[in-house]
Design brief:
Nucleoside Triphosphate Pyrophosphohydrolase; four-stranded mixed beta sheet; 178 residues
Length: 178
């Protein structure tokens, strides 16, 4: 049982539309018990759209927990059982009005593995076609286009704080040779 914990009890303490929180008691490898609170989440997808000229689209939106506007790549949460590739394409279209002819899977990340089950699936979109943005009724955001190299600088200078956006920008820059 090295580096494993056995769940002894689990209780749902909150169930909402986006996540559930459990309060668990676990047995540690030394036989002692500990408490673990977990946020159960269906996951999400982020997409970095890159133009033929090496520019990317970011969205600016207000993030309530931090009470500030953030810069992020287009992203959204998965519905239970939803295919992450399809979700990413949907979010790309809704938030930026873009569709793509090339859609490259960049892997997955665990944003906060200490207490959250969320997995974020990352994609790179190329061969962009531009249409009309179609935001959800409770979604308000601005789209900005910047060179990928400038986005890397923003990440390295600490100006982009969102984790998924930092990772996907750096991955895309590596792939694109920047």
């Amino acid at each position: 049982m090295h580096l494993e914990e056995k769940t002894l009890t689990s209780q749902n303490v909150y169930e909402g539309p986006i996540f559930t929180i459990t309060h668990d008691t676990v047995e540690l490898e030394n036989g002692e018990t500990a408490v673990r609170d977990s946020l159960l989440h269906h996951g999400g997808v982020c997409v970095i759209p890159i133009t033929d000229e090496g520019e990317i689209f970011l969205v600016k939106q207000f993030r309530y927990p931090f009470r500030t506007v953030t810069r992020e790549v287009p992203a959204g949460k998965l519905e239970k059982g939803e295919d992450h590739a399809a979700c990413g394409k949907r979010e790309l279209l809704e938030e930026t009005g873009c569709t793509c002819s090339e859609y490259i899977y960049l892997g997955e990340m665990y944003p906060t593995p200490a207490y959250n089950t969320e997995i974020t699936y990352m994609y790179l979109a190329k061969g962009l076609t531009f249409g009309k943005q179609s935001l959800d009724p409770d979604e308000f955001l601005d789209v900005e286009k910047i060179p990928l190299a400038d986005a890397v600088k923003l990440v390295m200078d600490g100006k982009i704080k969102d984790g998924k956006t930092q990772i996907v920008i750096l991955k895309a820059a590596r792939i694109m040779g920047i």
